[in-house]
């Protein structure tokens, strides 16, 4: 057993074999199970060992108050939630207070805050996510008090006591910039930015012609109020198309966060698929999107050559001195409707 965190009478200690009876006690208690695993899913000692005393990539801990075990917490690396991609080095976490006499005393909020700070400061996490049931108002309030934000509803996300339950995707983001949906008030500033980057606000691709300063999107500001990145998108009938993504600061996760926000927008809109078009020279975009789960679905030969007829300022030679002729389409499936 290793003490990971100590703070004012609360300890977070890694789990070991001697802790199995504490877990068995809690996970056969109807009060606890009504929130955590379900009263129809009482644990046995073998199930405790199989679920908790295993060697994998999760960090499992007991919560101690003044050297007395009162609950359980775990955290783990997480790349995506229901197809929604997360920034690199994101973490998920789950927890419960197993001794009901310690409920409603602010201990849960303190524990979550301690562990979130540990994950951010010691493990250098870029994001922490949780998915409480929408009916668990006490847990939701606790997480919001720590700084988590509700992003969307994950429909039929958890099977609990004979029914599929909805959950919230909740995110704690320690980033130093502010991401907000683009509004009419941003149009002039975005118009100037896109003209600097692309020569105009007009984006011509095989799916259509767009004024990207007027599209839906998200914009990221740094602490000084300068734009760090912007993403724009368009809702088609059955999918969402990303039209542009510009990260003005490299290797700080802004592109990944903007992409996450757009995928959440698709999720909220109940669209199961996100698509995008990029040019044949944009190896960086191909690497970025494929790492996020996008698959190459088609090559649109001569699409850029055709767009250049309407917009002659499109360069003929692009990144790495590669001639620019074609568009590559990439798509990704989201799990908007849970598989039951």
List keywords for this structure.
Aminopeptidase; 2 domains; 17 strands; 8-stranded mixed β-sheet; alpha+beta; 7-stranded mixed β-sheet
TL;DR?
The protein is 26% helix and 37% strand. It is an alpha+beta fold. It is elongated, with a radius of gyration of 23 Å.
List the helices and strands and how they pair.
Layout: E1 3-7, E2 10-14, H1 20-26, H2 30-33, H3 45-52, E3 59-65, E4 68-81, E5 84-97, H4 107-121, E6 127-130, H5 137-146, E7 149-160, E8 163-172, E9 178-181, H6 187-198, E10 202-205, E11 208-211, E12 216-221, E13 227-235, E14 240-247, H7 254-268, E15 273-279, H8 283-291, E16 295-300, H9 303-310, E17 327-333
Parallel strand pairs: 5-6, 14-15
Antiparallel strand pairs: 1-2, 2-3, 3-4, 4-5, 6-8, 7-8, 9-12, 10-11, 12-13, 13-14, 15-17, 16-17
Helix pairs in contact: 1-3, 4-5
What is the H level of CATH, i.e. the homologous superfamily of the largest domain? Gcn5-related N-acetyltransferase (GNAT)
Shape: elongated
Q: In terms of per-residue confidence, which ranges show pLDDT below 50 for 5 or more consecutive residues?
A: none
- The figure for the number of domains is 2
Mean pLDDT: 94
* CATH structural fold name of the largest domain: Aminopeptidase
Strand content: 35-45%
Task: Give the CATH architecture of the largest domain.
Answer: 3-Layer(aba) Sandwich
Describe the protein.
By secondary structure, this protein is α+β, with helices and mostly antiparallel strands. The chain folds into 2 domains: 3-172, Aminopeptidase; 178-333, Gcn5-related N-acetyltransferase (GNAT) (Aminopeptidase). It is built from 9 helices and 17 strands. The protein has helices spanning 20-26, 30-33, 45-52, 107-121, 137-146, 187-198, 254-268, 283-291, 303-310; strands at 3-7, 10-14, 59-65, 68-81, 84-97, 127-130, 149-160, 163-172, 178-181, 202-205, 208-211, 216-221, 227-235, 240-247, 273-279, 295-300, 327-333. The chain has an 8-stranded mixed sheet. α1 (20-26) crosses α3 (45-52) and α4 packs across α5 (137-146). It starts with a strand and ends in a 7-residue tail after the last strand. The mean pLDDT is 94.
